[in-house]
């Protein structure tokens, strides 16, 4: 029996991600090719409710290049999903039509709850042995997903319309942000977190897990990595104390002064301070002192979901 080879694309508000992998039954996926590009598709969507032409053009060009890459791997199936920016845009049909016409991808626009479910599939596939009850956090560009997963029980997913791009465009107008802007941002994040998790139980043995670019970038910065090293980021224990230190370092610098900081991905300078404010506030709100970092998330979950659907069909 041949091993299915699948390709998945995650079209996010800030970042687009590609993953091509073989998925042997009952085994971890075997990555063949992965890429991510910070393209800011959701630029100004919070204000205008539209995807702007320049942002669409950036993403279309990327997807055309990835179409050629995927075709070269002779995959058995391919899937593409879009999240917050496309969900919120009044011209999303125009974008989806262009993607189909110019890059030949049928894009599924997934809800926040479905985004959380597939993200949890990816996270679960790479957790250390012994981790059972999980509260996962995925800070995106336009939305943030919480997912509470307990073996044997129905998972709970919550999505809130706040992410690092939306936070910057709505509140963090100075470079660097002022103390008042940071306070307003923290208040908004805390209120949204409390509302989203008001009816979610949080047992004492629950593991708090974080995924996606904000959290993996902070893990890389905490270790001062000169280049992104998934093996050193995945399952890294990022403490609240370390996040406090990184947040203050970031808030003491302008966007330009953040360029070249060890561990900081190029293109993330404008949103990383918002990300640090975000994860710090969430952890304080939930009284968490440590975050287990997952380098796996929606991109892997999209492929695992596709494999499961193909198997059931």
What does the model show?
This protein has two domains: 107 residues, ATPase, nucleotide binding domain (Nucleotidyltransferase, domain 5, 2-Layer Sandwich); 168 residues, Nucleotidyltransferase, domain 5. The chain is 44% helix and 20% strand. A hairpin with a 6-residue loop joins strand 7 and strand 8.
Oligomeric nature of the chains: single chain
State the fourth-level CATH superfamily of the largest domain.
Exopolyphosphatase. Domain 2
Find the structural class using helix and strand composition: alpha/beta
CATH class of the largest domain: Alpha Beta
Provide the CATH architecture of the largest domain: 2-Layer Sandwich
Overall mean pLDDT score? Answer: 92
Radius of gyration: 19 Å
Number of helices: 13
């Amino acid at each position: 029996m041949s091993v299915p080879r699948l390709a998945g694309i995650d079209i996010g508000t800030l970042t687009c991600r590609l993953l091509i992998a073989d998925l042997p039954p009952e085994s971890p996926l075997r990555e063949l090719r992965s890429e991510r590009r910070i393209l800011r598709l959701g630029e100004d969507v919070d204000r205008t409710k539209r995807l702007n032409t320049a942002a669409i053009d950036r993403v279309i060009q990327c997807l055309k290049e990835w179409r050629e890459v995927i075709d070269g791997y002779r995959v058995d199936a391919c899937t593409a999903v879009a999240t917050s920016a496309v969900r919120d845009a009044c011209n999303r049909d125009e974008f989806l039509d262009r993607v189909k016409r110019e890059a030949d991808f049928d894009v599924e626009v997934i809800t926040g709850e479905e985004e959380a479910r597939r993200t949890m599939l990816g996270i679960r596939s790479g957790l250390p042995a012994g981790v059972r009850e999980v509260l996962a956090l995925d800070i995106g560009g336009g939305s943030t997903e919480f997912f509470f997963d307990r073996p044997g029980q129905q998972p709970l997913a919550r999505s809130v319309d706040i992410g690092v791009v939306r936070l910057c465009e709505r509140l963090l107008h100075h470079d660097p942000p002022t103390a008042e802007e940071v306070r307003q941002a923290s208040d908004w994040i805390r209120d949204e977190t409390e509302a989203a998790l008001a009816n979610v139980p949080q047992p004492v043995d629950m593991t708090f897990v974080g995924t996606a670019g904000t959290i993996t970038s902070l893990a890389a910065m905490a270790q001062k990595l000169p280049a992104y090293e998934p093996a050193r980021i995945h399952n890294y224990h990022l403490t609240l104390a370390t996040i406090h230190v990184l947040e203050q370092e970031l808030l003491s610098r302008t966007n330009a002064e953040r360029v070249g900081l060890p561990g900081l991905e190029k293109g993330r300078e404008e949103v990383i301070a918002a990300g640090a404010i975000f994860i710090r506030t969430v952890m304080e709100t939930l009284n968490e002192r440590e975050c287990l970092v997952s380098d796996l998330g929606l991109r892997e979950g999209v492929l695992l979901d596709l494999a499961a659907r193909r198997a059931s069909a």
